[in-house]
Amino acid sequence: MDYGLTEEQVMIRDLCRQVAEEKIKPVRQELDETGEFPHEIVKVLAQSDLCGLYIEEQYGGMGGGVMDLVVAVEELSKVCGGISLAMAATALGIFPVILFGSEEQKQKYLPKVASGEWLAAFGLTEPNAGSDAGAVATTAVKDGDSYVLNGTKQWITNGGEAHVYSVIAMTNKAKGARGASAFIVEKGTPGFEFGKKENKMGIRASATRELIFQDCRVPKENLLSKEGMGFLVAMKTFDQSRPGVAAQALGIAAGALEEAVRYSRERRQFGKPISAFQGVQFMLADMATQVEAARALVYQAARYIDSGAKDVSRVSAMAKLFASDVAMRVTTDAVQIFGGYGYMKEYPVEKMMRDAKITQIYEGTNQIQREVIGLSLIKEAARKK
Asked: Pick from 230, 254, 286: which residue ends a domain?
């Protein structure tokens, strides 16, 4: 289908496709098995001017928006959803600065991210605070010209590899979620360390680590917005970033569909290719329809956000929810079409199935997305009453 991509977006798509086929595909299996972070691929993305697609030109970016990011992440994820996360998770980590940063903060951090020199990460989740973002236990205590951070963040994508982190900490526990604040913390700050690299089911080429703060002193200039705005910073960031997760899920699903179609034409049973059997054709038809429906929703959500609309939480959650559920269904069916071969690591669809699962979990589980959507509908109905 023609989704009305701009000339620039077509160029982004084609360039990402070339990078994925020429640079990522040859190493995806090895990086999945070793869990090694794709430093060389990040260099290629930087050299291709893909790291600053969604950052304003005045800060060294390309001046695009969420839609440009979605196009890139989808295309890279068709080949490897883990490697594409180096870009997608950096967007999540730097969106707080884009949305709430002061001019000085933007001048300091955005050019380094836009050039690909620096990666970013977002620190909200804790051992006892995931879906319940209001249960954050990490504290930030004002002390002179600094804030002193103490606590632990868990399962942080790009953890240890990123150079700059947007971190949510409590400056006033008595206020609950309204007592949370957001801070910019640089790698190498004394008192800021990393835990072990997690051994994950999927997205294994992406680094996931704990962030450990022990009397970590952060300059007061690194406070994002003002005290008490941390929860709002996090929620507004997710509104912008969830289409990126949706694009990752969409890309994984689209890649699995392509592999399944190709294999169905090559694999022969009972004297003919399995693509000749109606049972396989029906599976492929359902997979293709789901992928196309997900793409339509994800693209429209991204464009809606880029339009400057204020209330985007519902459509952002819908895109993430639907695309990630589609990714799980489509990759599962792709494995089925491959049969026994699909269960073997020599073929890419078992990896795609493993990679797809996390898209239903991070940046808000799909159960949380349904709550966001449902509450939005109820509030809207109450306003109209």
From this structure: 230
Catalytic site positions: 363
* Helix-strand-coil split of the chain, %, nearest 5: 55, 15, 25
Verify that 204 and 242 share a domain, yes or no.
no
Same-domain check for residues 150 and 187: yes
User: Pick from 213, 230, 247: which residue ends a domain?
Assistant: 230
Local structure of residue 198 (DSSP, 8 states) = P
Tell me the C-alpha distance between 175 and 167, whole Å.
18
Of the candidates 85, 216, 225, the residue with the CA atom closest to the CA atom of residue 159: 85
| Domain enclosing residue 294, as ranges | 238-384
**pLDDT of the residue at 31:** 98
Per-residue pLDDT tens over the stretch 31-44: 999 999 999 999 99
Residue given tokens 């349904």 in the structure block: 370
- Distance CA(36)–CA(190), nearest Å, equals 26
What is the structure's pLDDT at 132?
A: 81
Q: Please tell me the predicted confidence (pLDDT) of residue 310.
A: 87
The C-alpha atoms of residue 194 and residue 154 are separated, in whole angstroms, by: 10
How far apart are alpha carbons 256 and 117 in whole angstroms? Answer: 32
Predicted confidence at residue 91, as pLDDT, reads: 98
Task: Indicate whether 221 and 281 sit together in one domain.
Answer: no
Confidence of residue 230 (pLDDT cuts 50, 70, 90): very high
Q: What is the pLDDT of residue 87?
A: 97
Same domain for 251 and 367: yes
Which H or E run includes 144? none
The per-residue pLDDT for 129 is 85
* CATH number, residue 342: 1.20.140.10
Strands 139-143 and 146-157: antiparallel
